[in-house]
Amino acid sequence: MVEAGRTYLIRNKQTGTCLDCNTGNSWVRAWHDKGGQNQKWVLDREGRGHPWTLRNVETGRFLAPAPEGGDVGPKTPINTSDEPHLWHLSDDGGLLR
Q1: pLDDT for 5-49, tens place per residue?
Q2: CATH code for position 65
Q3: CA distances from 95 to 2, 10, 24, 25, 61 (A)
Q4: How many domains does the chain have?
Q5: At 39, is the secondary structure helix, strand, or coil?
Q6: pTM for this one?
Q7: Phi, psi of 54 (to 5 degrees)
């Protein structure tokens, strides 16, 4: 499992692409690993058992569902926000869901 306060590159197991924050706007997309700060995310939480926040290293913005406040499901678009959003992560045999 991940450790709170550490920086991670978040990679899709099936495609090999990484969670990439576009620095010119709030878009988040899957992109090839370029090693940039916009592909690094700090995962943090208040304590064990609490939901996580994901903050982009380059922009300082938080991963958020788009549109904000909408229902979240497997195909929900994501972007970034100045406000932290909470995410539930679970360990699936060494992978995160």
Answers
A1: 999 999 999 999 999 999 888 889 999 999 999 999 999 998 888
A2: 2.80.10.50
A3: 10, 10, 30, 29, 24
A4: 1
A5: helix
A6: 0.87
A7: -125, 110
Residue 1 lies in a domain: no
Cα–Cα–Cα angle for 44, 75, 35, rounded to 5 degrees: 50
Long-range contacts at 68-77 (CB < 8 A, ≥ 24 apart): none
Residue whose token pair is 């010119």 = 24
What's the chain's length in residues? 97
Range of the domain at 88: 6-96
**Structure confidence by residue, pLDDT tens digits, 40-59:** 999 999 888 899 999 999 99
CA nearest 36: which of 53, 21, 54?
21
Structure tokens at 94: 């060494």
Paired strand residues for 27:
79
